[in-house]
Amino acid sequence: MEIANNMRGITENIVTSYDARVRALGDLVVDTRKSLKGFASDRKKMAREQAETLKKGETDRLKSFKVMMGGIQKDIKDIETYVKKLLGEYSSDMKKAANAWQGMSKTMARARKGMAVRPKVEAKVKVRPVKEAVK
């Protein structure tokens, strides 16, 4: 009978060991499922946060771009105003110069009319060739 008792002990040990492994495996399955659910939840949360951050970043970039463009447009207007002023001054100077030139031209024309006889220009020294002048 001793063999039968030993066999019964071995079978009870096998059954007990099997039950323990099944329970451990069940616990492992439950823990794995909890971990996977946690990972999925964390992944969704991170994806949502990333999307919000990216949309906020885009909004901030748009605001900065609009501010920058406003500054550029103001600079362009300032340059246009400066150039118009500079060209206006130049135009005014050119008109004054043209008027002065026309006035001088009229004066010269009147002076030419008044000189019916042109004065004779004479040299005070007799003109001689260079060889004679050097001697």
Features:
single chain; 135 residues; mainly alpha
Overview of the structural elements:
- The protein has helices spanning 2-114, 130-134.
- With 135 residues, the chain is mainly alpha-helical.
- The longest helix has 113 residues, at 2-114.
* Global mean pLDDT: 88
Counting copies of identical and different chains, the oligomeric state is single chain
Unreliable spans are none
Number of domains: 1
Fraction of residues in helix? over 70%
CA gyration radius, whole angstroms: 55 Å
Secondary-structure element series: HH
Map the helices and strands.
Blueprint: H1 2-114, H2 130-134
Short description:
The chain is mostly helical and about 140 residues long. It has helices at about 1-115, 130-135.
